[in-house]
Amino acid sequence: MTCKQLVERLYDFIQGELEEELSRHMQEHLDCCSHCVTYVKTYQITIHLSRRLSESPVPDQLLQRLREVLKKAENES
């Protein structure tokens, strides 16, 4: 397994939603790749912190800007 393959399946791995063999391959990769271990830990911390954020409404100015960007992208395609 490559680092890229691990990253592509990371969410399902963390959620425990992968088939056993694939999960084992990912764990084997993590056992020997310190870069991916760091990436996974950072990813888990990000998920944990984002779940603690309070929900607040999106400011009107941001909504307007998003609509403009989406409309421009739609017109360009």
Q: Which terms summarize this structure?
A:
mainly alpha, 77 residues, single chain
Can you walk through the features of this model?
The protein is 79% helix and 0% strand. The chain is mainly alpha-helical and 77 residues long. The protein has one domain (3-76). The chain is elongated and about 45 Å long.
How large is the share of residues in beta strands? under 5%
Number of helices: 5
How many strand units? 0
* Overall shape: elongated
End-to-end C-alpha gap: 36 Å
Residue windows where pLDDT falls under 50 for at least 5 positions: none
Look at the helices and sheets and give the structural class: mainly alpha
Summarize this entry quickly:
With 77 residues, the protein is mostly helical. Helix content is 79%, strand content 0%.
